[in-house]
User: Which sequence fits this backbone?
């Protein structure tokens, strides 16, 4: 599955570096903006799954940025502040923040808050790429492109592809694929699975008889090239 994207909007480079180090260890894709206007521009250009937003910014308050953001997006927002006034907490939550964290904070607490918020948040960029970018799957529209060209898949072919594409490189045994795509009553029908694997290869591979994308793990099952 594609990494969850997190945007830090804070003008303190040391804090951004610390937060990035904490979140990189959980394999998130992290970027930062030092002004509110830069943050809004990045959010519009490439929507993140979570925004970590400081109350004090050089060009606007975090509350003002949050108001603008809420007029156009439901992205999860974790507010950061060095202030201890309870009124700031109330103002942040009333403006639309999903959670609030006071500075200084422990790295493990930050990580826990981020994980909790992302569990409640659907992925905002539902695009999966596999095979070094040769195959792109848009989970929202169910569109599949191979080497830039649209490819039509049947519903069953699409379910089989996305099941493996959400975990590229992972080996799926025959039983798991059959049970998840067709149901438990089909778990012994390996010949049925082979037919659909062949259908996928004909639509995805440059040379279906020499597959580079849908790979066989002999005696076990199949995996997709990451």
Assistant:
């Amino acid at each position: 599955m594609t990494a969850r994207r997190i945007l830090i909007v804070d003008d303190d480079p040391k804090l951004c570096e610390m937060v990035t180090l904490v979140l990189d260890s959980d394999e998130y894709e992290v970027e930062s903006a030092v002004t509110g206007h830069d943050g809004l521009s990045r959010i519009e250009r490439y929507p993140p799954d979570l925004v970590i937003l400081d109350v004090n910014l050089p060009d606007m308050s975090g509350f003002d940025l949050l108001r603008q953001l809420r007029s156009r997006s439901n992205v999860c927002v974790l507010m950061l502040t060095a202030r201890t006034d309870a009124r700031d907490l109330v103002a942040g939550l009333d403006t639309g923040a999903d959670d609030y964290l006071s500075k200084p904070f422990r790295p493990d607490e930050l990580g826990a808050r981020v994980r909790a918020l992302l569990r409640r948040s659907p992925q905002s960029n539902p695009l999966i790429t596999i095979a070094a970018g040769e195959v792109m799957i848009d989970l929202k529209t169910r569109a599949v492109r191979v080497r830039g060209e649209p490819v039509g898949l049947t519903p069953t072919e699409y379910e089989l592809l996305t099941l493996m594409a959400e975990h590229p490189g992972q080996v799926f045994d025959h039983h798991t694929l059959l049970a998840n795509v067709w149901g438990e009553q089909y778990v012994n029908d390996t010949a049925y699975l082979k037919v659909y694997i062949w259908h996928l290869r004909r639509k995805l591979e440059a040379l279906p008889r020499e597959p580079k994308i849908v790979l066989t793990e002999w005696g076990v099952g199949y995996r997709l090239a990451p």
Notes: The radius of gyration is 22 Å. The chain has eight helices and twelve strands.
